[in-house]
């Protein structure tokens, strides 16, 4: 399935809608969508390495604006929509722990979730619910998400065709690694907090 998604992305990015799709995926992932935009960002950067930084910027902006939506879900709609998203990920029992982290570290905890595979959406919704400072939340999100996506863009820009060859050759192994990292992020939230 991941290989088909990768191949689909490689074809779609040559269309005029590829950039909009990247923005939309980054936007919805930050508040409720389960699939991180990294796969699509990587595919786009591999296809056109000289536009990698542009794609990193688009992904960052989409993700931060999606984080603002997640914040709004927590701020205004926690009982209905916010808890629905959290329950869907099976993290309701750990939600109180995440709230306690916010009380101790405020939005600085968002920086960790924004850069790592820890589910960013859980932290965007919680930030709104605990009424963290919105401006600080947006700035921390911008720095963390930009660092993550520009790192991907830089690697592909720097190594270009070698990265494409590496991805094509080791795609199955990289997919497993990506899923393991994603699962580790969910595991961290679910069991370590």
UniProtKB/TrEMBL annotation:
PANTHER family: ALKALINE PHOSPHATASE LIKE PROTEIN (PTHR42709), DEDA FAMILY PROTEIN (PTHR42709:SF11). This is Membrane protein YqaA, SNARE-associated domain. The keyword Phosphoprotein does not apply. The chain crosses the membrane at residues 20-48, 55-78, 134-157, 169-189. One of its GO terms (cellular component) is plasma membrane. Pfam families: VTT_dom. Keywords: Membrane, Transmembrane, Transmembrane helix. InterPro entries: DedA_domain, VTT_dom. It comes from the Bacteria. Residues 36-155 form the VTT domain.
């Amino acid at each position: 399935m991941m290989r088909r998604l990768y191949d689909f992305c490689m074809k779609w990015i040559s269309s005029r809608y590829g950039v909009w799709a990247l923005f939309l995926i980054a936007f919805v992932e930050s508040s409720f969508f389960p699939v991180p935009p990294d796969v699509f960002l990587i595919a786009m950067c591999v296809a056109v390495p000289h536009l990698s930084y542009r794609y990193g910027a688009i992904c960052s902006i989409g993700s931060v604006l999606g984080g603002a939506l997640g914040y709004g879900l927590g701020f205004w709609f926690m009982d209905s929509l916010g808890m629905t998203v959290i329950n869907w990920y099976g993290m309701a029992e750990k939600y109180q722990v995440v709230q306690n982290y916010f009380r101790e570290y405020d939005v600085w905890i968002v920086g960790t979730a924004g850069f790592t595979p820890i589910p960013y959406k859980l932290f965007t919704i919680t930030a709104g619910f605990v009424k963290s400072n919105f401006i600080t939340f947006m700035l921390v999100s911008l720095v963390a998400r930009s660092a993550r996506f520009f790192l991907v863009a830089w690697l592909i820009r720097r190594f270009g065709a070698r990265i494409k060859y590496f991805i094509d050759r080791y795609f199955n192994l990289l997919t497993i690694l990506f899923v393991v990292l994603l699962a580790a992020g969910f595991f961290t939230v679910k069991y370590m907090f």
